């Protein structure tokens, strides 16, 4: 579980979110996520309907962990990270939406945080270069691989803009701060989205062109915030005395799925749904498990 834990080491004016017609209804679009328990510490991938009900297990391995799932834009395949015992990361794989057709993505050994491009042809990910993690993008078959960042910081958790021209991502510095950045793929020009000295993690870019992320704010808890890609109209979504992390937009941009809980391995982490305005909070999973890194099918 070390890999997923480190990923979250974790007022301005109102937003108009989820314009009608942006991506269709979300009710029949399943959510994929990683799950582990204290009794079974290797993670597997599951899906659940946003309306609730039984989970469906997609991967079944007691010797490797499968984490960080990302739907293809057509919903037919899932990219994810598979890693073995001792925390050694084996790289990015893809599979069908029912768990079959496993394929390794060449050249991704040590990679994490896969993100499928809106056109379905490319995948962005983070990968170690020396002591830092840098961002790369490659065709879905792994070639050619292009390095996007060259910094002394750690870059991870890329997420695509709806038009496929930009990535937003987290940049963590040596002081333990992390901010959301934006990079233009054609020029590699980088622009800050959130302020320096923040603790901002795991952004997700919606079809309605807003970025949600998890911020450890002045309360000491991780809460969900949303911001426009240019950094304006920062707005808090959750504010409970709980840790909220790994947010993912519904395809219509009206709701979010996220993980709440997890102060330690004895504290279960459940998936919750919430409207983008912070209303209608609903607990989706309720077992004594750790449910992480959800991705809502486009």
From TrEMBL:
Protein name (database record): TolB protein
Does the keyword Signal belong to this entry?
Answer: yes
Pfam families documented for this protein: PD40
Q: Which organism is it from?
A: Streptomyces crystallinus
* Signal sequence bounds: 1-25
UniProt keyword list: Signal
Keyword Signal attributed: yes
What family does the database annotate? Answer: Belongs to the TolB family.
InterPro entries the UniProt entry points to: 6-blade_b-propeller_TolB-like, WD40
């Amino acid at each position: 579980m070390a890999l997923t834990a480190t990923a979250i080491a974790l007022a301005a004016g109102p937003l108009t979110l989820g314009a009608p017609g942006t991506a269709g209804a979300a009710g029949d679009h399943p959510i994929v996520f990683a799950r582990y328990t204290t009794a079974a510490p290797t993670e597997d991938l599951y899906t659940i309907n946003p309306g609730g009900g039984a989970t469906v297990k997609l991967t079944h391995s007691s010797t490797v962990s499968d984490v960080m799932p990302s739907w293809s834009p057509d919903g037919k395949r899932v990219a994810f990270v598979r890693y073995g015992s001792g925390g050694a990361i084996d790289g990015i794989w893809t599979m069908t939406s029912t768990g079959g057709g496993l394929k390794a993505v060449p050249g991704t050994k040590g990679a994490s945080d896969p993100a499928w491009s809106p056109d379905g042809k490319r995948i962005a990910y983070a990968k170690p270069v020396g002591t830092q993690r840098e961002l790369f993008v490659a065709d879905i078959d792994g070639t050619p691989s292009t390095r996007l960042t060259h910094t002394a910081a750690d870059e991870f958790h890329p997420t695509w803009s709806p038009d496929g021209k930009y990535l937003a991502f987290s940049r963590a510095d040596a002081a333990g701060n992390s901010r959301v950045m934006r990079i233009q793929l054609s020029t590699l020009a980088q622009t800050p989205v959130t302020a320096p000295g923040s603790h901002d993690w795991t952004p997700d870019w919606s079809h309605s062109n807003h970025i949600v992320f998890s911020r450890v704010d002045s309360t000491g808890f991780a809460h969900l915030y949303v911001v426009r890609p240019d950094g304006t109209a920062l707005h808090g979504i959750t504010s409970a005395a709980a840790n909220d992390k790994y947010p993912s937009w519904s395809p219509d941009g009206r709701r979010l799925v996220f993980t709440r809980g997890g102060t330690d391995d004895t504290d279960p982490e459940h998936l919750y749904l919430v409207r983008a305005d912070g209303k209608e909070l609903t607990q989706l999973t309720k077992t004594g498990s750790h449910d992480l890194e959800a991705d809502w099918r486009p």
